[in-house]
Amino acid sequence: MKELTSQVREVAKRLLANQKVDLILGWEKGAQPFRSNLAVIRSTEEADRLVFDEFCINNLSTYLLDYRDGHEKIGIFVKGCDSRGVVRLIEDNQFARERLYIIGIPCPGMKDPVAAAWADSGLAGKPDSEGLAAKCRQCVHPNPVVFDELLGSEQAPHLEGERFADVKRIEAMTSAERYEFFAEMFSRCIRCYACRQICVACNCRKCIFDETRPQWVGREVNLADNWMYHVVRAMHIAGRCVECGECERACPVGLPLMLLNRKLIKDVNELFGPYEASLKLEEGAKPPLSVYRPDDPDNFL
């Protein structure tokens, strides 16, 4: 990916030198070779810090929320999932399109930094330490869906197996088996809110889980409150999830959070579709659960 790194740096220098943008969001190498972190570039001299390699796994669109109340014009490099996150923020009226200069990079699939760290440590490495990250193995939209200029070549989907195979496996369980599955899953949650903080669709200025008057969900780490937290959050992003998988990747206890999201992605498409979130930018567009039509399905009533 050295050629792409050179192109990324050239684009950044050109945009900053011509004052097309005030800053650029991209990736730079971290302290270890398997870490490529967020880079905020404000000068042409800093542009040589930028890279694009197999560890640029972070979804940069989330970091736009740190600038939503400003006036700076921002250049941002986006993969397929990052670009869907940008669309999500624009549709949610969290960011203005005219404040963005979007540079798309078709994504060849990223490696898992944690798996690479295990392998580098000398301890027992994970089997997929050299393969694609788990979230990339479920990717069906690796190419940017919105951009002002595009680098690199179009990529084929990285999906391994059937897209909703894990969802169908849960759907095939009895109600008692499903209860046991999710009870075990949610009992492990430590309520650190990493999944909320990393999610581009969790962009409310005041989160329901931070409210104390009234307190909608208890603060205790117990099964009931954990269950409520995850179900409410999953319903909040139903029809809005961009499938970047950052929630599951950020979870310190390894909860399969994308299982919930994919279930709702599947259901929203079947009930209100064909529909997939944030695949194109349309003026005034809203996801299915944000609007009402008289012919909406109501057989659950």
UniProtKB/TrEMBL annotation:
GO molecular function: iron-sulfur cluster binding; metal ion binding
Domain of life: Bacteria
The entry's keywords: Iron, Iron-sulfur, Metal-binding
Pfam families: Fer4_17
Domain 4Fe-4S ferredoxin-type: 232-261
Protein name (record): Coenzyme F420 hydrogenase/dehydrogenase beta subunit domain protein
